[in-house]
Amino acid sequence: MVKRNRNIEVTQVTEWKGGGATRVEDYLAAEEPLEMRARRYSLGVTLRTPGDDEELVAGFLFSEGIISRREDLVALRMPSDTALERNLVRVTLDPSVRLATNSAARRFSAGSACGVCGKASITQLRRRGLRRPEAATQFDPEMLCALPPKLRAAQDVFGRTGGLHAAALFGPGGNLLVLREDIGRHNAVDKVIGWALLGGRLPLSDHLLLVSGRGGFEIVQKAITAGIPLLASVSAPSSLAVQLARELGLTLVGFLRGRRFVIYAGEERIAVSASVPAGAS
Questions:
Q1: Which of 10, 45, 114, 177 is catalytic?
Q2: Which residues are CB-contacts of 103 (< 8 A; sequence separation ≥ 6)?
Q3: Is residue 190 within 8 Å of residue 63, measured between CB atoms?
Q4: Cα 280 from Cα 96, distance rounded (Å)
Q5: Between 87 and 225, whose confidence is greater?
Q6: How many CB atoms lie within 10 A of CB 6?
Q7: Is the four-CA dihedral 49, 55, 61, 64 of positive or negative sign?
Q8: CA atoms of 237 and 245, how far apart (whole Å)
Q9: One fold for both 32-118 and 141-269?
Q10: 233: left (phi over 0), alpha (psi -120 to 50) or beta
Q11: SS3 for 104?
Q12: How many helices (DSSP H) and strands (DSSP E) are in the chain?
């Protein structure tokens, strides 16, 4: 029998180890749907780890371009205990916010694996008139290398379940400001952006974002929307993510592990000077 505890579930499993099987307790990352509705429109449905839902919704609305400022979000009515609305958030938007039927839901459903969808999203971002992140910000490479251990140390739920992604926002000196976890890496990023939006901290012009897993197109898009100048990941970015970062001026770092990382875009923001191999043209 599974016992619920907000973002963690405990269940009985059979573990095989050293030639024998034993019944033990295991921790699972919770996964539940969350639908966002405004007026008569569905803004999208996501599978998320419960917790920080207000930040998730606020961050999603902002990073997807449904709202453009904190004042556009008038109120959030969070899920109730009733069967019909336990996974439903009702959003009240300023009357000036215009919604097109199903457009937000369709945009949210388009994943980074869809090349055509991604190219359409780049065009959409151009039309939104997003500003390029502040170019003058400089980050120390040694400071970058010290960030992954800070992220892992702060991942409370991952430490118990091993099944969550994390997004962590750091100040220019490498101080951890906020970390959020979720089964979806894009949800974790939205929770961080929502935290900043609700606290009146946007744009995050001198901050950097570190994500577990890869740096995909959706993550790059959300970072640019929040004004973050540097996005780093412990794994590889996708080709579309690199294209978007180079086009819109984001510094994109991948494979940030130990004392190594790869700069895919925006090298000018990191205090390094790359040497050219002998014989290279």
A1: 114
A2: none
A3: yes
A4: 55
A5: 225
A6: 10
A7: negative
A8: 10
A9: no
A10: beta
A11: helix
A12: 9, 13
Q: Strand pairing partners for 24? A: 13
Give residue-wise pLDDT tens across range 52-98.
889 999 999 999 889 999 999 999 987 766 656 678 899 999 999 98
Q: How many CB atoms lie within 10 A of CB 246?
A: 13
Look up residue 180 and give its amino acid. Answer: R
d(CA 197, CA 65): 13
Encoded amino acid at 216, one letter: G
- Per domain, the residue ranges of the chain are 1-30, 32-118, 141-269
**Taking the C-alpha atoms of 208, 142, 136 and 224 in order, what is their torsion angle to the nearest 10 degrees?**
-20
Compute the average pLDDT of residues 99-111.
50
Can you read off the two tokens belonging to residue 122? Answer: 């780049």
User: Which residues, 6 or more positions from 22, have their beta carbon under 8 angstroms from its beta carbon?
Assistant: 14, 15
Q: Would you call 97 helix, strand, or coil by DSSP?
A: coil
Instruction: Say which residues have a Cβ less than 8 Å from residue 45's Cβ, sequence separation at least 6.
Output: 33, 34, 35, 36, 105, 108
Q: How many CB atoms lie within 10 A of CB 280?
A: 6
Q: 209 with 189: CB under 8 angstroms?
A: yes
The C-alpha atoms of residue 73 and residue 98 are separated, in whole angstroms, by 12
How many Cβ atoms sit within 10 Å of the Cβ of residue 113? 11
Distance of alpha carbon 171 from alpha carbon 13, whole angstroms: 41
| Class at the top of the CATH hierarchy for domain 32-118 | alpha beta
Mark 144-175 as b/e (b = at least 16 C-beta within 10 Å). Answer: bbebbeebeebbebbebbebbbbbbbbebebe
Q: Name which CATH class applies to 141-269.
A: alpha beta
Annotated active-site residue 145? The verdict is: no
The CB density around residue 253, as the number of other CB atoms within 10 Å, is 28
Q: Largest alpha-carbon pair distance within the chain? A: 69
